[in-house]
Amino acid sequence: MTGGLVVEGLGVALAGRTVLSGISFAVAPGEVLAVEGASGAGKTTLLRACAGLVPHAGLVRAAARPAMVFQHHALARRLSATDNVMVGALARIGFARAVLRLWPAPERALAAGCLERVGLGAVGRRRADTLSGGQRQRVAIARALMQQAPVLLADEPVASLDPENAEAVLLLLRDLARRSGLAVLVSLHQPELARRHADRRLRLDAGRMVPA
Ligand SMILES: Nc1ncnc2c1ncn2[C@@H]1O[C@H](COP(=O)(O)OP(=O)(O)OP(=O)(O)O)[C@@H](O)[C@H]1O
């Protein structure tokens, strides 16, 4: 499989306790797979393991390191939307140039394009802390797109949004999967949102996969 995500026999232990075990699934390019489960079921840990942020047993295979959208967007409040998106290019640009804000012109153009793709072409200069919750989550998605990864992991991206913005962000993720061939793995508390916006669903219960 090229471009997608394959997980086989994934297991995670944290502080000596098994948090995930026997997790196997695949997400194809262009597909949205939702991870459902109650609080504490292991959704965040699964996404973090897929992102390489948590040591794990088993196999996680993707053509390149997945990009991650964090639950509380984790933007730098005082930076502009564009500069927040540029952070997604850190691995290419290097920390020293980033600190000096020596962003190469092609990367600036790419950041502008990523903001356009999430419907925020007009707010690039605005500071993150002047944006609405929905706009901030979109900037966080644009920052993940900036990584140009084939796989996008979104951890409860709508948890702090009102129903209208939640709907819009999930439609955006689906659209990005379709148009850009991204494999999207999104964790969601609300099963009805997962049913409406995901192509397939996976349910976790106490760290194990159960029928969705
Ligand atoms: N760093 C850690 N050390 C020890 N246990 C942890 C750690 N992080 C998470 N856990 C435990 O792992 C389990 C799964 O947590 P996780 O955050 O993945 O669940 P979740 O489904 O994302 O929950 P929520 O919906 O509340 O975010 C929980 O029992 C949690 O207490």
UniProtKB/TrEMBL annotation:
Which molecular function term from Gene Ontology is one that the record holds?
Answer: ATP binding
Q: Which PROSITE patterns match?
A: ABC_TRANSPORTER_1 (PS00211), ABC_TRANSPORTER_2 (PS50893)
Record key words, sorted: ATP-binding, Nucleotide-binding
Stretches that traverse the bilayer? none
The record's section on InterPro entries has: AAA+_ATPase, ABC_transporter-like_ATP-bd, ABC_transporter-like_CS, ABC_transpr_LolD-like, P-loop_NTPase
Could you tell me what this protein is called? ATP-binding cassette domain-containing protein
Q: Does the keyword Nucleotide-binding apply?
A: yes
> What is the native source organism of this protein?
Roseomonas haemaphysalidis
Where does the ABC transporter domain lie? 5-212
